[in-house]
Amino acid sequence: MKRAPAPAKTKPSAPNAEKQLASFIAKFEPKHQALIRAARKAIRKRLPAANELVYDNYNFFVIGYGPSERPSEAIFSIAAAANGVGLSFMHGASLPDPHKLLIGSGKQNRFLRFVSASRLSEPEVEALIAAAVAHSKVPFAKNTRGKLIIRSISAKQRPRRK
Question: What pTM did the predictor assign?
């Protein structure tokens, strides 16, 4: 007897994905919720063609931004945990950072923490974002809007609030 094929995995529709995203953000303390939303809004405004790849993982909640649906092509991400919110640059180790804003000692990734989304509009941070976009091997599409894609949800997670 043949088994019926497994149902195809479909990506959530945009309204459903937005609802899921809102539920992930709601797990955080109100000040972190506001910061995540404000950072997302600022990045969407700056890079409307970027796809948002969402991971609600064990250690972190992450929204990655890149020119395609491939995680390996993401250039930076908003990363949040109970202790705060940061902007993680996937190839931060190779970015020019004359103001020494980036933290970390890995071979590839660097990040900066922020307590206000206004940090994203500081000239030094804008220069890092511009350098990351320029460093991308895949160009961002013109005159298009990126998609919101829920990539991963972990069953077990560290607490999102202190």
Answer: 0.88
